[in-house]
């Protein structure tokens, strides 16, 4: 037996607005930053961003230096230099934190305002 399609009530429209689903745990307001009443906070953040951009460039130069030293270490010693490798991991985490701060993904300033290295790293 085939069922007859149910009839829509007269008050329901075919051209009703679609339902917009939001990501769980995220509201549109959560992307807004509360800068407080003082607009100077934006300018202060801009100064920190400029300073961290300089730090980022220094980190890139340091990375090149460490990569060259590690290459020659592995070439002649036939093994990697563990302190350089460990420092490289910490440097990568620091650069990641700078990137998140610079792009607005985080309000947390990286080292020297936070702990150096990974927070979940076992000592």
What does this structure look like?
This protein has a domain of 79 residues. Helix 1 packs antiparallel against helix 2. The protein is flat and about 75 Å long. The protein starts with 39 loop residues before the first helix and ends in a 21-residue tail after the last helix. With 123 residues, the chain is mostly helical.
Describe this protein with a few key phrases.
transmembrane helix; 123 residues; 2 helices; transmembrane; membrane; single chain; DUF4389 domain-containing protein; DUF4389; mainly alpha
Write down the Rg: 26 Å
The number of strands is 0
Distance between the termini: 71 Å
Largest sheet: none
Oligomerization state: single chain
- Number of helices in the DSSP assignment: 2
Give the helices and strands as they follow along the chain: HH
Helix content: 40-55%
Low-confidence stretches: none
Mean pLDDT: 79
Please state the overall shape, judged from the principal axes of the Cα atoms: flat
Classify the beta-strand content into a percent band. Answer: under 5%
Structural class call reads mainly alpha
InterPro entries: DUF4389
Organism: Sinisalibacter lacisalsi
Protein name: DUF4389 domain-containing protein
Pfam families: DUF4389
Summarize the structure.
With 123 residues, the protein is mainly alpha-helical. The protein has helices at 40-77, 82-102. The longest helix is centred in the middle third of the chain and has 38 residues, at 40-77.
